[in-house]
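anyone seen this seq b4? input:
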Amino acid sequence: MPEFFTSLFHQLIHTSALEWTATITGFLCVYLAARQHVLNWPISIISVSIYTFIFVENKLYGDALLQLYFLGTAIYGWFYWNKVSTSDYKPIILLSNQELIRITLLIVFFTVLLGQLLDKFTDTDVPHIDAFCTVTSFVAQYLMTRKILQNWLLWIIVNLCYIPLYIHKDLILTAVLYMAFVIIAWNGYQFWKKAFHKNNENIDA
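predicted toks r here
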């Protein structure tokens, strides 16, 4: 165990300034999203732009593609949440069990498809786990932009999967960040669920 922490400390002090910047802005944007704060989107733009470069450099092509998607959804989310804040309040939405089953099947289908493509056409050594994390993150991010409660449950699952993946790629600081993301995602889920029930109580009243 002491050797693990020594190795971890050694890798942390040799982490590039670029990864530090991406990590700090990534933490801030997820924390602000959990608090339903619109500033999470512009900060996210900074983080995902840097991570695009980092992931290409580490042959995580699915994740690199995901960052470009995040960039687009960050711009959309910034516009959408700003529009909501200046007009009617956008309530948090809860998906039905039937909708969740459809989303699960969608994730499975595209994970298999993307995994095969990454395995055949790229030099990545983790095509299938990269595919799963990428597809699940795609879906979770879209659900977040629409303020759907279950986005946080998907983020908990995918962030747990990302931790060993980033350790495998020696992106230790990013792995630590995703450990924090798991906690933030759980807190975000609890915070949004409370807001969802409070809003429904106000409607019923």
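Helices lie at 2-13, 17-34, 40-57, 61-85, 97-121, 127-145, 151-168, 172-204. The chain has a mean pLDDT of 87. kinda curious what u guys think
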